[in-house]
């Protein structure tokens, strides 16, 4: 048998086994129709707080895994649309939360000269606490809507398969409800309904050791940051973001560091103060890796997990990007 024929047979066997390059690809989507969305409001009577949510719906009307997304400081539920649309096209109900007090109301109507000061004030412990308490309230309401006759989300949500994600202040929110420990109090904000988490621009704790804060994270985490991912508010540095991954325990933990990516790389548009030209491949890598992660841990898709742990990841990231797992 010739070597060419041997290689062809091996390639065919690998693909049939479901582990070849043609077996799985997280960027593939069916159809090009616009993604249907629902703009809803979650009322928290106990806190007298209204939480706007934007829901991206998959085409199929059957029950689907749910992925939450928490925006960064000064953002809204309408940000990072590219994530919501792609995740929905991949079969997820993507629920984008808006957090009053740390959303766009912080800077809207303020003179330009005062906007940065207003943003600094909004990056407070009080707003952090509001945010982490918003998450279980939204999950509770989603469970109720899923059972409510006549509601457009009736029967659409698989609430046993929930993922949590967020960018910047939203990453801090995600970490808090997904297993981060706070001092001697323990992980008091963890919501056990969350099965997997993605933090875009993660942050180390301002006080205490990263190992203590993240060493008990029991669910799979994926971290994404960049070599220029700094932020003037909160004094977040690249080093502080990179300190999170080594502090996580082994088992389902992943980190992507995008070369030359600034803080805005994970958003739809550039932000004031950006210095580097945006790289269009960054969004491609973000979409591919986040989708494979959700598929692996919210759908128990073995092909997705094999893809994440294989050299196939190199097909969507660039040579200077860093990718690691444990």
Secondary-structure blueprint:
Blueprint: H1 3-16, E1 36-44, E2 49-57, E3 64-70, H2 81-89, E4 93-97, H3 112-122, H4 125-147, E5 157-167, H5 169-177, E6 194-200, H6 210-214, E7 221-228, H7 238-242, H8 244-247, E8 253-262, H9 280-298, H10 302-308, E9 322-325
Parallel strand pairs: 3-4, 3-5, 5-6, 6-7, 7-8
Antiparallel strand pairs: 1-2, 2-4, 8-9
Shape: globular
Residue share in helix: 25-40%
Number of helices: 10
Query: Mind describing the biggest β-sheet?
Result: 9 strands, mixed
Beta-strand percent range: 15-25%
Q: In brief, what are we looking at here?
A:
This protein has helices at residues 3-16, 81-89, 112-122, 125-147, 169-177, 210-214, 238-242, 244-247, 280-298, 302-308; strands at 36-44, 49-57, 64-70, 93-97, 157-167, 194-200, 221-228, 253-262, 322-325. The chain is α/β, with parallel strands linked by helices and 326 residues long.
Descriptive account of the structure:
With 326 residues, the protein is α/β, with parallel strands linked by helices. The chain has one domain: 3-Layer(aba) Sandwich (Rossmann fold). It has a 9-stranded mixed sheet with strand order 1-2-4-3-5-6-7-8-9, sandwiched between helices. The longest helix has 23 residues. The protein starts with a helix and ends with a strand. The N terminus is likely disordered.
